[in-house]
Amino acid sequence: MDDEALTVSSEKLDNALVVHIVGEVDLDTVDLMDTALAEAAATVTAPEIVVADLTDVTFFDSMGISSLLTARQRCQEHRVSLVVVASDRRVLRPIKLTDLDRVFTVVGAVEEAVRSDVA
User: CA dist 21 to 4, 32, 46, 67, Å?
Assistant: First the structure.
């Protein structure tokens, strides 16, 4: 698989560390997403939050779901909240089919995620 199938970057916005994930999340690329979310969870302190921005994800399978669950656990260990940003059906469908929209706070835009009352 092409190394550029997934890119990850982070930025601090208000009370949030936003991890932007761009491209395909699958078996070949999920480690990059895992690492970035783990680093974010270890970096922030409450009341700051970790935001997983999946707005530009073009493929999202069970590996992505697993990565989000692991990130949620890590955030809980560090006593910080995780907010997922997703607006595309390719990402929302697997989240909803697994009922994880009841587990995660899922919003449609980064701006909404960084609002203090969302997390």
Answer: 12, 9, 23, 12
pLDDT in tens, 50-70: 999 999 999 999 999 999 999
Domains annotated on the chain, with CATH? 3-113 (3.30.750.24)
How do residues 26-48 score in pLDDT, each as one tens digit? 999 999 999 999 999 999 998 99
> Tokens standing for 3?
């190394």
DSSP notation for 73-110: HHHHHTT-EEEEE--SHHHHHHHHHTTGGGTSEEES-H
* pTM greater than the 0.90 cutoff: yes
Kind of pairing between the strands at 105-107 and 81-85 = parallel
d(CA 57, CA 23): 5
